[in-house]
TrEMBL record:
<dbReference type="InterPro" id="IPR000286">
    <property type="entry name" value="HDACs"/>
</dbReference>
<dbReference type="Pfam" id="PF00850">
    <property type="entry name" value="Hist_deacetyl"/>
</dbReference>
<dbReference type="GO" id="GO:0046872">
    <property type="term" value="F:metal ion binding"/>
</dbReference>
<dbReference type="GO" id="GO:0004407">
    <property type="term" value="F:histone deacetylase activity"/>
</dbReference>
<feature type="domain" description="Histone deacetylase">
    <location>
        <begin position="29"/>
        <end position="336"/>
    </location>
</feature>
<keyword id="KW-0479">Metal-binding</keyword>
<dbReference type="InterPro" id="IPR023696">
    <property type="entry name" value="Ureohydrolase_dom_sf"/>
</dbReference>
<dbReference type="InterPro" id="IPR023801">
    <property type="entry name" value="His_deacetylse_dom"/>
</dbReference>
<protein>
    <submittedName>
        <fullName>Histone deacetylase family protein</fullName>
    </submittedName>
</protein>
<comment type="similarity">
    <text>Belongs to the histone deacetylase family.</text>
</comment>
<dbReference type="InterPro" id="IPR037138">
    <property type="entry name" value="His_deacetylse_dom_sf"/>
</dbReference>
<keyword id="KW-0378">Hydrolase</keyword>
<dbReference type="GO" id="GO:0016787">
    <property type="term" value="F:hydrolase activity"/>
</dbReference>
<keyword id="KW-0862">Zinc</keyword>
<dbReference type="GO" id="GO:0040029">
    <property type="term" value="P:epigenetic regulation of gene expression"/>
</dbReference>
Length: 346
């Protein structure tokens, strides 16, 4: 079975301009150039991308509320009808509750559905968001149907900070959740392992009360780092999902050697869950040279991490998350893909 890579050109159309960092407006690092460099990295690993099929809204609707999907698909057009509105949809109000009435205004809904200023919505954003999710869905279909032992979805924009009805941290639709939902059509249990620099808070939130999807995240300790309010070790799930979420926060600046014990803890929990398939939230922003500078994983370190995950030999969907512009972004992906292939052996 050959390795498959999925990407649609529409994913390049989302071009966010700015975001706020400690109150200062700076250019958004979530640029379309990321996807181009990742494509080059996949090709360097000997893999040619395929265009995903259009699976419609169904895979997205398994994860996200209809209110939220309607918001994402129509908010830009509505925003433009507001006199004096910004060119991008950026929230300027946030509710102090989420169990009250739902606002009718575009401004109120933007505050309700966008957690921060890092996820502005422009004229082509929904197109990119939609096709990013289709890449995840197609990658999961290929694994679900036995066409590939493992696949890579080059998802851009990323997704692991997106909750059921809330965008944040450059993320709109939870692509790992989309992949897990597709796999669940044939698999009784699915595990999601997040190796991004930041806690996969949206993925955690999407499955926090469920026992059929195990969520595990290794990330920089959020006590002084984004996403600040989620990702702590005492967050174990709730209701039927109690015991089905594992957070492994590690100190900022952690390098290759000190990362591996946390990975072993994650793998031990996944193996105890005995999943039928695995989704990996592949963040390359843990790199020592990444602009966010949170962890210190080397290019060879990504290879070691990938090979160890691959040795579980589970049917696996790799879903791209973070990893921002540096000269080594493409090579880091190449090393991860080749390392995973060496470990998985399929």
């Amino acid at each position: 079975m050959s390795m498959k890579v999925y990407f649609a050109d529409e994913q390049l159309r989302h071009e966010p301009r700015t975001f706020l960092v400690s109150g200062a407006q700076k250019p958004s690092p979530e640029q379309s150039e990321r996807a181009r460099r990742l494509l080059a990295g996949a090709e360097q690993a000997g893999l040619a991308p395929e265009r995903p099929a259009d699976h419609g809204l169904g895979p997205i609707a398994r994860v996200h509320t209809p209110e939220y999907i309607d918001f994402l698909s129509r908010i830009y057009e509505r925003w433009q009808r507001i006199e004096g509105a910004s060119e991008e949809v950026i929230p300027n109000i946030h509710p102090d509750r989420r169990d009250g009435s739902y606002p009718s205004s575009a401004v109120g809904q933007a505050g309700y559905h966008q957690a921060d200023t890092a996820c502005p919505i422009g004229p082509h954003s929904w197109d990119s968001i939609y096709w990013s999710a289709q890449s995840a869905a197609e990658a999961a279909v290929a694994v679900r149907d036995g066409m590939a032992g493992w696949t890579y979805a080059l998802c851009r924009p990323p997704g692991h900070h997106a909750f059921k009805d809330l965008a944040g941290g450059f993320c709109f639709v939870n692509n790992c959740g989309v992949a897990a939902g597709v796999l669940r059509e044939a698999c009784e249990r699915v595990a999601i392992l997040d190796v991004d620099l930041h806690a996969g808070n949206g993925t955690q939130g999407c499955f926090y009360d469920r026992a059929d999807v195990l969520t595990v995240s290794i990330h920089a300790d959020p006590v002084r780092y984004y996403p600040f309010f989620w990702g702590f070790a005492d967050e174990r799930g709730e209701g039927p999902g109690l015991g089905y979420n594992l957070n492994l926060p590690i100190p900022r600046g952690t390098g290759d050697e000190d990362y591996m014990p946390a990975l072993e803890d994650a793998i031990r929990r996944i193996e105890a869950f005995a999943p039928d398939a695995l989704v990996v939230a592949l963040g390359l922003d843990a790199y020592v040279g990444d602009p966010f500078a949170g962890l210190a994983i080397t290019t060879d370190g990504f290879g070691r991490i990938a090979e160890r995950i691959g040795r579980m030999r589970l049917p696996t969907v790799l879903v791209q998350e973070g990893g921002y512009l540096s000269d080594d972004l493409g090579p880091n992906l190449t090393r991860f893909l080749t390392g995973f292939g060496n470990g998985h052996g399929a």
